[in-house]
Amino acid sequence: MHALDLGPIIQAILFALFADLTAIITAVIGPTYDQLLVPELATSALYPSLSGAGGPNFLSVAAEFSAYVLVNIVDPAIALVGVGVAVLYLFRSFIERWSQAVESLLPRLVLAVVAANFTIPITGVVLDLGSGLYPVISGWDRGEWQQWINLAGFGQFSFSWDNGALAFVLSMVEFALVLGLVLAVGLRDALLAVLVVLLPMFTLLWPFRPLALLARRGWLLFVELVFLPCVMVVPLELAVGSPSSVLLVGYLGCALASPFLLSLAGTHLASFGFPGSSAVIGAGTQRGLGAAPGAAVAHAGPFTNANRTSGAARVAFASTARAAGTASAPAAAPIAIAHAAGQGAAHLFRHLRSAHESPGSRRNSPPFRGGGTA
Questions:
Q1: Distance CA 194, CA 328 (A)
Q2: How far is CA 150 from CA 144, 153, 185, 243, in A?
Q3: What is the dihedral of CA 76, 79, 82, 83, to 10 degrees?
Q4: What's this model's pTM, rounded to 2 decimal places?
Q5: How many CB atoms within 10 Å of residue 101?
Q6: Torsions phi, psi of 69, nearest 5?
Q7: Mean pLDDT over residues 40-49, rounded?
Q8: How is the chain split into domains, by residue range?
């Protein structure tokens, strides 16, 4: 009686299970992309009117709140700051070190007061520039990126039935990236609304040098968030007709990483929490290269201490290890090589000199016989 082999049966059951799960996730990704992300990336949704034309939106509510802040906080603060500057201006003749600071503060204060009262028109101009550039970029190839089927194709379903657990993992990654894009666009819109409210106060702080950095970062962050969708939509357009699911995952990852791509250029999204990759990599590499020789010497320390009074070869090795630990990794190698070569040359020179000066060397050498005449 032959034993029943359950291996192929279990394999077929697991394969069908992964295929079903992958097909379910794939069926969910499409509506998430088409009905959540694409409407968020529409021009009217990204750049609504500040005046509230066409109905209330997140920017129109923020503009009303900004006007309220301007009237009730910024304008009274302008009067207080003006009185303070006037007092300092009167006393500048008594305190000489304040005179130059007060004279440079007055024009900056006037400019800040004007800019704070015209924050809404200035932000409107920046938003108009973004709303004019974004449709040009997003309209390439007739907007094919706005349908998930154009990105993934019907091959996603066949891929889910042909690759088992691998297709399930890739589908889960795709769903996470699409959902991350939805949340990233929502976070961008919320930050824009918050900055529209806070920019008048930030602008009023610009004349004071210790707080000027806050105003500059706030305005630069606002500009970067306005033009962020122009960068985010480029990978989605390139993903249309992707030949493989792995490449599609890469394009979606680039779209989600667009704030980090901007931070690579040194923009102020890094100040909001998106670290500059170049700075992180450079600092980590430098720290690793600097720590590697020291760690190696630390582990070799007991050995070098134990052999400090041993033979010449061990003493040379100990001194070479100590010399290599005094520099970072790129410079440690040539220093160690040069030190080892110098130790070897010195040892060879001492050996040749001691061999020449020893009595045994004279006994073993043939006697010198001088010639003479009979």
A1: 46
A2: 6, 5, 21, 11
A3: -120
A4: 0.64
A5: 12
A6: -65, -40
A7: 92
A8: 9-275, 281-355
Banded pLDDT at 157 (limits 50, 70, 90): low
Residue 101 pLDDT class (50, 70, 90 cuts): low
What's the mean pLDDT in 135-145? 90
Q: Which residue in 267, 259, 265, 268 sits closest to 278, CA to CA?
A: 265
Number of H helices, E strands in the chain: 17, 0
Contact assessment for residue 114 and residue 40, using Cβ atoms and an 8 Å cutoff: no
Find the mean pLDDT for residues 44-59: 86
Rg of the Cα trace of the chain?
Answer: 36
Q: What is the pLDDT of residues 196-248, one digit of tens each?
A: 999 999 998 888 878 888 888 889 889 989 999 999 999 999 999 877 788 88
The 3-state secondary structure of 155-209 reads: HHHHHHHHCHHHHHHHHHHHHHHHHHHHHHHHHHHHHHHHHHHHHHHHHHCCCCH
CB atoms within 10 A of CB 337: 12
Nearest CA to 232 among 285, 189, 275, 168? 189
Res 94: pLDDT: 60
Query: Distance between CA atoms of 169 and 42, rounded to whole angstroms?
Result: 30
Q: What is the 3-state secondary structure (H, E, C) of 260-286?
A: HHHHHCCCCCHHHCCCCHHHHHHHHHH
Rounded distance between C-alpha atoms, residue 91 and residue 48, angstroms:
49
Return the residue matching tokens 């194709």. Answer: 153
**Per-residue pLDDT at 19 exceeds 50:** yes
Residue whose token pair is 């003006």: 82
Helix axes 75-91, 96-117, angle to 10 degrees: 160
Q: What angle do CA 60, 65, 71 make, to 5 degrees?
A: 130
Instruction: Write out the H or E segment, with its range, that includes residue 118.
Output: none
Phi, psi of 337 (to 5 degrees): -65, -45
The widest CA-to-CA distance across the chain, in whole angstroms, is 134
- Helix (H) / strand (E) element for 255: namely helix 245-256
**Which residues have C-beta within 8 Å of that of residue 312, sequence separation ≥ 6?**
347
Residue whose C-alpha is closest to residue 188's, from 54, 41, 67, 69: 41
